Amino acid sequence: MNFDPSLPDEGINVSRSHPLREALLLVLGVIGVTVAVVASIGFAVDWVAPLIPPDAEVYLFADSFDPAAEQAEPDAARVEALRGILDRVSAHWPDSVYPFRIQIWDEAQPNALALPGGTIAVTTGLLDTVTSENELAFVLGHELGHFHNRDHLRGLGRGVGMTLVMFAVGIGGGGGAAQLAGIAGQLTQRGFDRDQESAADAFGLGLVAAEYGHTAGARDLFEHLRQSDDGSALSGYLSTHPLHQDRIDRLEAVARAAGWPLTGKRSALDSVLRAEPTELAAPGQSAPDE
Amino acid sequence: MILSNVETVPGKNITRFYGVVSGSTVRAKNVGRDIMASFKNLVGGELKGYTELLTEAREEALLRMAQQAESLGANAIVNVRFSTSSVAQGAAELFAYGTAVQVD
Amino acid sequence: MDAQIALLQIGIPLALLLLGYFIGSAVERRHYASIREQELRWRSLPAVNFRTVPRGWTVEDSTLLMGNVVISVDYFKRFLAGLRMLFGGRVKAYESLMDRARREALIRLKVETVEQGYHALVNVRMETSRMAGARGGNSVAGVEVLAYGTALKLRSRPT
Q: Quick check: A180 and C40 CB within 8 A?
């Protein structure tokens, strides 16, 4: 036999395809699938959550949450005053079965939290920011809205769903894929979280309108919060609480649709709730009522 | 293209030999098959999904090897060998190689 | 602040990917050019994978010789392969890796043969193994291909 030194054709064992195009397709594919799966989990959770009776939820979370007991401010008078407002506002939600508790946390950042099981926490920073009882009532109403909408259950369900998706992507693809899916999934989650906040806003608005006859407290609160903090457009999207102006607009739309007056007489704040007088000018305090 | 995994093509004479030709593909399984396989791991048995996947991949490798031989002008490949190696946890390389020859 | 962190989270991997892509493709192109040139240069050295010594060859001496190489992929290809492994299908990023490694190993075997003074190779075999990356299973540091065969010293050169 004779030897023939020819060489075979080039490129038979490689595929001719532009890597950037393939990268684009795969990246869009991963983002698309992740968003679709996370969104469906979100919708499924939204559908299931109202079906679980509130008694079960109270039982589930009853013993698991009292971590903030140490943070709670022991000033009984302030807690009492806040409790009074809460009782008046929650009277307009007669079906609630939650055993509501109030806690005041000593923090400079204005914030309010609804803790699973029925505890509502308000920071001293928030108490220093508000200038009328209406604003506090709206804050409490918003937190009550979270309980009404079963937001803790939804958050739990979505968290479990996200973990499963990340697990599946982790075992399937490499680190890069997991990062990509993680970012896409988180951004989708934020959308759900923001909708939750708006829904809680709307519920709080309803309670406040029922208690005072108008919704001026909500707008005042946001004006005050906006004066003390200025977020850029991007950070607004990425955080779970929608940007303040956005929120104000949505609230006004809800109020107008329901026929609740946007302005009215503000009720004075119980003096025991204010540690020191605030320098922020409260809109409407000097202007005559509409 | 005649394929044989012995030294010669039985019954024929090799008139000319070229060199080593090879064909390979790298294939990945997908997450769905992976999860089904994990379930199958509980009870054991044939992983049909993987069997199909690897068979398809091996055929493609053989095809590519034949293409290389054709481009040389050969009409047979002798001493064909297979090699499978895992390139990453989710991907395997199917590799077939042999010597391209011309038989009469 | 939140926005800057997120931008950094996306920005740094993206920058690494682009770096991997541009430099990686340049490195690959250069390697392929070198492979083609060397294949042309050594193509007159017969390398077969059967065991029979062709009729007419008189063997004076023989020995076992090896050639091997470890090649790694760039970050972009690794990322692409990771995505591909979610969906299944042909992992094009690694195909060129294997092709390069195999051809390079064979070239090195031939070079070794010539350097040692031998004239032909029979029973050439190839072995592939994976070098796992730092993070274990999914990450690939590189691939090693070993080509080995029996080198023959011939009294008369093959025609």
A: no
Q: Give C-chain residues touching B83 at CB under 8 angstroms.
A: 126-128
- How buried is C102 (Cβ within 10 angstroms: 0-12 exposed, 13-18 middle, 19+ buried)? buried
From the list C49, C24, C15, C26, the residue with the least C-alpha distance to C125 is: C49
Least CB-CB distance to A235: which of C2, C82, C159?
C2
List phi, psi (to 5°) of C84: -60, -35
Residue boundaries of the structural domains of chain A: 40-269
Structure-token pair, residue B72 = 């040389």
Distances from the Cα of A233 to the Cα of A187, A194, A243, A245, angstroms: 15, 15, 8, 11
The tens digit of pLDDT for each residue in B22-54 reads: 999 998 887 777 778 888 888 888 888 888 888
Strand partners, A284: none
Model pLDDT for residues C93-144, shown as the tens digit of each residue: 889 999 999 999 999 999 999 999 999 999 999 999 888 766 655 566 788 9
- In B, residues 68-97, which contact A (CB 8 Å cutoff)? 68-69, 71-73, 88, 90
Q: Is B99 on the interface with A (CB under 8 A)?
A: no
Q: Which domains does chain C have, with CATH numbers?
A: 2-154 (3.30.110.70)
The 3-class SS string of chain A reads: CEECCCCCCCCCCCCCCCHHHHHHHHHHHHHHHHHHHHHHHHHHHHHHHHHCCHHHHHHHHCCCCCHHHCCECCCHHHHHHHHHHHHHHHCCCCCCCCCCEEEEECCCCCCEEEECCCEEEEEHHHHHHCCCHHHHHHHHHHHHHHHHCCHHHHHHHHHHHHHHHHHHHHHHCCHHHHHHHHHHHHHHHHHHHHHHHHHHHHHHHHHHHHHHCCCHHHHHHHHHHHHHCCCCHHHHHHCCCCCHHHHHHHHHHHHHHHCCCCCCCCCCCCHHHCCCCCCCCCCCCCCCCC
Query: In whole angstroms, what is the distance from residue B57 CA to residue C17 CA?
Result: 29
Burial of A32 (0-12, 13-18, 19+ CB in 10 A): exposed
Average of pLDDT values for A20-27?
A: 88
Phi, then psi, of C114 in degrees rounded to 5:
-65, -40
pLDDT digits (tens, 9 = 90+) for A171-219: 766 677 788 888 888 888 888 888 888 889 889 888 888 888 888 878 7
ipTM: 0.86
DSSP β-bridge partners for residue B91: B28, B88
Q: Do B99 and C52 touch (CB under 8 A)?
A: no
**Rg of the Cα atoms in chain B:** 17
User: Which residues are within 8 A (CB) of A70 and not within 5 positions of it... i.e. 6 or more apart?
Assistant: none
> Chain B residues with CB inside 8 Å of C84's CB?
28, 91
Sequence-distant (6+) residues with CB within 8 A of A203 are A141, A142, A144, A145, A148, A149
d(CA B13, CA C52): 13
Q: How far apart are CA A61 and CA A25, in angstroms?
A: 44
